[in-house]
Write a structure and sequence with these properties.
Blueprint lengths: L1 H23 L7 H23 L11 H7 L2 H12 L2 H18 L4 E4 L13 H9 L9 E9 L13 E6 L10 H12 L5 E5 L9 H12 L4 E4 L2 H5 L2 H10 L3 E2 L4 E6 L2 E8 L19 E6 L5 H6 L4 E4 L8 E2 L3 E2 L13 E5 L2 E5 L16 E9 L11
Parallel strand pairs: 2-15, 3-4, 4-5, 5-6, 8-9, 9-10, 10-14
Antiparallel strand pairs: 1-2, 3-15, 7-8, 11-12, 13-14
Helix pairs in contact: 1-2, 1-4, 7-8
The structure holds fe (ii) ion.
């Protein structure tokens, strides 16, 4: 019994610390430096907790009846032990949600096509601490990107404005983190795979780079996409902590359309659409209010974080594209994603989610600052948006 309580305490304490890490990384109120300190303290606490409990193991539980061992523990330690054991309900809840819906949403792809990065080489990428980590974990997937093909059917009033014969095809890229690891050849392989597909629009949902001096190289790599379709972008938290105005200006100068805090109407081969961009909470304001706009055009929101879901719902968006969470970085068997910087925790770590008439696609991202991924490969997505054939064409009002 005591062993079970101790094991539950370790599990519950770990889950609680991970929850705190996820939620403190979702806010713009804390500086990156503070977030890093909190994360490192909590990770250290996870490691220390079993030793803390072991320190009260005298005399050993095996030498004393369980009740007596408990009684000889200081009252505060007893409370901590039982309190943290109760927190084991957190991973239990995650497992229940992951098994019930999350796994299906996470894996909601028509196809997942591996992108060969063979000619990208691995040696130049394996430098520094990320390289060490990459080597240390043999199943690390940070160099194994996939092109996922996903499709959704929109049912709202906007469905009538999308051609029934020609679905809208959006190439969704997110979280490039173009800062040296993996190297440029990795990204070239991803772009080449994208160019094998047909698309009407390119949407880049933030975290372009942590090194502003890399922007010219990134723009050059992305140039072939611009020859194929309109390219729109917003910035993410990593861009905001870098030099956001300089990154924004460089991208605009190169021909990318900045929709951060703005909205644009576009004519696509599938029909007219409205695209808005949100960099909230890092940009303090959302794009202009659409709640009173009864125009039936399909509304697409590019946002960096899935935490904008409720805003998108209030504003009558039909489709949201987001990133930021990197799929949870590590997806444990049975339990699901782990590290997901969101106020929803791991709930929207990656995948396709529907709430009412609103669809949200959360990308696992192409790159990442952290060099460990497991059962969570980097992705670029071709999202097909088709209208529900049952929606009458010629309706009035949203
Ligand atoms: Fe990111």
């Amino acid at each position: 019994m005591i062993v079970i309580v101790v094991v539950l305490s370790i599990i519950g304490h770990t889950a609680f610390c991970v929850e705190l890490i996820n939620r403190t990384h979702a806010t713009a109120r804390l500086t990156h430096h503070t977030q890093k300190i909190i994360r490192n303290v909590l990770l250290l606490q996870i490691l220390v907790w079993p030793f803390f409990l072991a320190a009260f193991r005298t005399p050993a539980p095996s030498l004393l009846p369980a009740a007596e061992w408990l009684q000889q523990l200081p009252a505060m330690v007893q409370q901590l032990l039982y309190g943290t054991a109760l927190l084991a309900l957190i991973p239990l809840h995650h497992t229940w949600r992951w098994q019930r819906r999350g796994k299906r949403q996470f894996l909601a792809a028509v196809a997942s096509l591996p992108i060969s990065t063979e000619h990208a080489g691995t040696t130049p990428d394996l430098r520094g601490t990320p390289g060490l980590l990459g080597r240390a974990f043999p199943w690390n997937e940070i160099w194994s990107p996939v092109l996922t093909l996903k499709s959704i059917v929109v049912t709202g009033p906007a469905a009538a404005t999308i051609s029934p014969d020609r679905a809208l095809r959006i190439l969704h890229l997110s979280d490039l983190h173009f800062d040296g690891t993996p190297g440029p050849e990795y990204y070239r392989s991803v772009i080449e795979a994208c160019l094998q597909q047909e698309f009407d629009l390119v949407a880049l949902t933030g975290d372009l780079t942590d090194r502003h001096d890399q922007i010219p190289h990134l723009i050059e790599l992305l140039r072939p996409l611009q020859d194929r379709a309109p390219c729109l972008f917003i910035l993410g938290n990593h861009d905001w902590r870098n030099e956001p105005q300089a990154i924004r200006a460089s991208m605009q100068h190169a021909g990318w359309v900045d929709v951060g805090g703005k909205q644009r109407r576009l004519q696509t081969p599938a029909g007219p659409i409205l695209v808005a961009g949100s960099e909230f909470p890092w940009m303090p304001q959302h794009p202009p209010d659409l709640s009173a706009d009864d125009n039936d055009t399909l509304r697409l929101l590019l946002t960096h974080t899935p935490d904008d879901l409720s805003f998108a719902s209030r504003q009558g968006f039909d489709v949201v594209l987001a990133g930021h969470t990197h799929g949870g970085h590590v997806v444990l068997p049975v339990l699901g994603p782990v590290f997901s910087p969101s106020r929803y925790g791991v709930r929207f770590a990656a995948g396709l989610f529907q709430t009412g008439q609103l669809w949200m696609h959360v990308s696992r991202g192409v790159g990442g600052m952290h060099s460990l991924r497991w059962r969570c490969p980097p992705e670029v997505t071709l999202l097909t948006v088709a209208p529900d054939s049952r929606v009458s064409r010629g309706h009035t009002g949203r």
